[in-house]
Structure formats: C-alpha cells, structure tokens
Amino acid sequence: MSKDRIRWELFFTFMGIGLFTFGGGYAMISVIEDICSRRKGWISHEEMMDMTVIAESTPGPIAINCATFVGYRQAGLSGAVMATLGVVLPSFGVIYLISMFLDDFLEIQIIAHAFKGIRAAVGILILNAAVNMLKKLPPDPLPKVIALCSFAAMFLADLFCVDLSSIVLMLAAGAVSLVFAAGRACAGQKGGDPR
To answer: What pTM, to 2 d.p., does this model score?
Structure first.
C-alpha cells in the first residue's frame, strides 16, 4: 500500500472515530482499539494498552495522543499529522457550529433528550474500555489489585465528595508497582545462584 493511501486511510478512519464517538477520549478508547487493533491490525492489543497508559500520562486529550501514535507508527510524521487532523476536525466543526447557534441549540427539546441517551451510552463505552483493559492485564495479580484499589479510591472519593486528583492516583499506582518490582528483584538476587 502506498504512503499516500495509508495517510488518507488514517485521516478518514480517525475522522470517522472523531465524528461518531461522543464522550471524549475514554469513550473513544474501545472504538480506537476495535478499529485500529482488531479490524485494521495497525497495532497489537498490548501496544494499545501501553499507548493508553502513555496517552493518559502525557499532556493533551487521550484520543488525540492515540491518533498521533497510531499515525506515526503507520506513516511517520505525516501519518501522525493526518490521523491527528482526522480525529480533531469533526469535533472542531461541531463545536464551531454549536457556538454559532448556542442559545437556540440548548433549548431544543429533541437535542436535550438526545444528549440524555448519549450520556448513558458514553458511560457504557468507558466501562467497556475498562473491562477490555482488565481482561488483557498480565496474569500477575498485582496489576489487578492496583486497578481494583484505584477504582475503589475513585468511587469512594466521588461518593463522599473528596477531591482526589487522578494524577495523585496514577503516581501512587506507579510507586506501588515500582516498590513491588524492586522487592522482587532483591528477593531474586538473594535467592538466586551465588555465582
């Protein structure tokens, strides 16, 4: 496949993702994985998980970071630009149109009812992305325990209106994982071959 064709395929693929996915980056994760990993084979499931973690911990929206990564993997810098433009343009266009007619737009009953349904669907998309990531975690119980504790901490913080930053939670999860990895490395050296 020629580079030009790959670039345009990246552009239109991510434009479709950006156009028909509501709810932001977390809702897009399962759609991006379905299209880029299962259907197109551009990235593996493991790369998708790594990309999600990296995209979440770097500045910028997660969907744009994912699009940039996939585009770069497929066609270098020009592929990254095309994929990023593809995922950004639909949102930009929709927001621009809404801003022109914002006062009237919010009062249309059909739109208000549609957004109630969209909110419910977005929650399901985010839950689907979380379940897919949990299924693909390594068999080691530590990542599952960290995920469960993180979920419990966020749930309880929301329930009791405690301001808990997701950045603090990510740093704590990383620190716990590093401590366990260091502990396993030390235990391996002590119990290993004395040569």
So the answer is: 0.60
> Which tokens go with 11?
């552009």
How far apart CA 31 and CA 44 sit, in angstroms, is: 14
Beta-carbon contacts of 23 under 8 Å, excluding residues fewer than 6 positions away, are: 118, 119, 121, 122, 125, 126
Closest by Cα among 70, 101, 98, 103 to 84: 70
Of the pLDDT bands very low, low, confident and very high (cuts 50, 70, 90), residue 89 is very high
Which residue, among 180, 142, 149, 144, has the nearest Cα to 164 in the 3D structure? 149
CB 127 within 8 Å of CB 133: no
The per-residue pLDDT for range 159-173, each reduced to its tens digit, is 888 888 888 888 898
Which residues lie below 8 Å from residue 112, measured CB to CB, with a gap of 6+? 106
Q: Is 42 exposed, middle or buried (0-12, 13-18, 19+ CB in 10 A)?
A: buried
